[in-house]
Amino acid sequence: MQTLTLGPSGTYSHRAATAVSEDIAFTESVTKIVQAVANGEYDRGVIPIENSIEGSVTESLDALAEYDVAVVREIITPIRHALLAHDQSFETIASHAQALAQCRGYLDEHYPDVELEAVASTARGVQRALDDPSIAAIAHPDNVQGDLQVLAEDIQDQTSNATRFVAIGPASDRSEAGGKTSIVIYPNSDYPGLLLKLLEPFAERDINLSRLESRPSGERLGDYVFHVDFQAGLYEDRTQGALAEIEALAEDGWVKRLGSYDTEHVVS
Ligand SMILES: O=C(O)C(=O)C[C@]1(C(=O)O)C=C[C@@H](O)C=C1
């Protein structure tokens, strides 16, 4: 089963993808991963969804709302960043924007005057550092190679730093089994109490929400798409009952069932 994820080799997404398959291919944008799976070019994709320090990976949420794919698995991995460089003489630190943000406190304290460069992935930052001694990278310490050294380890602002990834597949692989479900609701309307009404069907059936995130719909200012994760499977009657009510409330918009799955923790 060929799995597409964020590359080049050595990213955290790559580490998470090894839990899904041994046959891994790389691209440098989350949107491209979701598009390639929706188009049937790859059986699986692995994308980051949210981080315990920095929050949502918004590009992933927007792509899940837009393209026709299923969430088939959830993978949670600890994220432990290292600072890699030829030596201490670097002037720039290159990494993924999420990784730079997860180390904000460390960087402010130790390198307040160093320029930060956001690149497509942590492993791309490592390649920049390999090619140029004036550049350091923030990435997993296993990326140390060539003339690079690990200058500091565990530089993330919280030791418990973790990122939740999902494995996606074609919409035809959507499962109703599993202890957790992801859906996206676009009500395409706005009136007092709408959000409360959309969430009440879960509370009434004792379904625990594990996440609620709003993203701009892109249609007009103040118009939102809601990403909801909850702890029940699509196969359950109570879930079907809740979704029927929500679909009636969102009749001018849509409700997308991304799928049910089980949570998995992978130690990196
Ligand atoms: O650049 C990487 O290594 C990635 O896999 C991306 C990513 C992200 O987008 O959040 C994944 C995990 C970490 O939170 C930092 C970066």
Automatic annotation (TrEMBL):
Pathway: Amino-acid biosynthesis
Residues of the ACT domain: 183-260
One Gene Ontology term of the molecular function aspect: prephenate dehydratase activity
GO terms for biological process, alphabetical: L-phenylalanine biosynthetic process
Keywords: Amino-acid biosynthesis, Aromatic amino acid biosynthesis, Lyase, Phenylalanine biosynthesis
Entry EC no(s): 4.2.1.51
InterPro entries: ACT-like_dom_sf (IPR045865), ACT_dom (IPR002912), Preph_deHydtase (IPR001086), Preph_deHydtase_CS (IPR018528)
Domain Prephenate dehydratase intervals: 2-170
CC annotations in GO: cytoplasm
Name of this chain's protein: Prephenate dehydratase
Native source species: Halapricum salinum
Classification of source organism: Archaea, Methanobacteriati, Methanobacteriota, Stenosarchaea group, Halobacteria
